[in-house]
Amino acid sequence: GMRGANHQTQVVTAIPLRCQQGNVFIYHTAWFTTHLRLQAQILQVAEGYKEQAVAEAARSTALELRGLGFTWVFAPVADVTIGPADPTIGTRSPAGDPEVAATATAAAIRGFRDGALIPTAKHYPGHGSVTADSHRALPVQAADLATLRARDLKPFVAAVRAGTPAVMMSH
Q1: Given 25, 51, 60, 74, which is the most exposed site by the fewest CB atoms within 10 A?
Q2: Is 80 within 8 Å of 97 (Cβ atoms)?
Q3: In the structure, what pLDDT confidence band is assigned to residue 133 with cuts at 50, 70 and 90?
Q4: Residue-wise DSSP of 95-145
């Protein structure tokens, strides 16, 4: 650590990485194939497979990323998609069903943590139910609080309960 006047300060270096499932691949590194497996496992939760598959895929991804020197990942995407009317999140969403998305998000958080990687649930309060592409316009979340609680917020509640230390705002 660094010495101060009357105390010692610890400096922690975080090396983050943007990592997400779906059709957006930003980095082409050694973990690419594991990343594809993570997406496949998340989709399988929606088809009734065990959530352990998602946790294991996230843990495997975390171990590969730790091996590359990363300490923090901007994942998982926790947005509940509304389907084709959702131009931004789309296939990056774990599901269109809030319960399935919550289960997959919590499992991914646990898996990343088990692999010693800091996870970040994103995009709070839920970007999968807005119909404007945030890369081209400023979307407005018009849902009332009851709808947000019943749909969009469920994966974030699950992420916090699973121990996520970080939540990324919609952007």
Answers
A1: 25
A2: yes
A3: confident
A4: BSSHHHHHHHHHHHHHHHHHTT-B--EEEET-STT--S-TTTS-------H
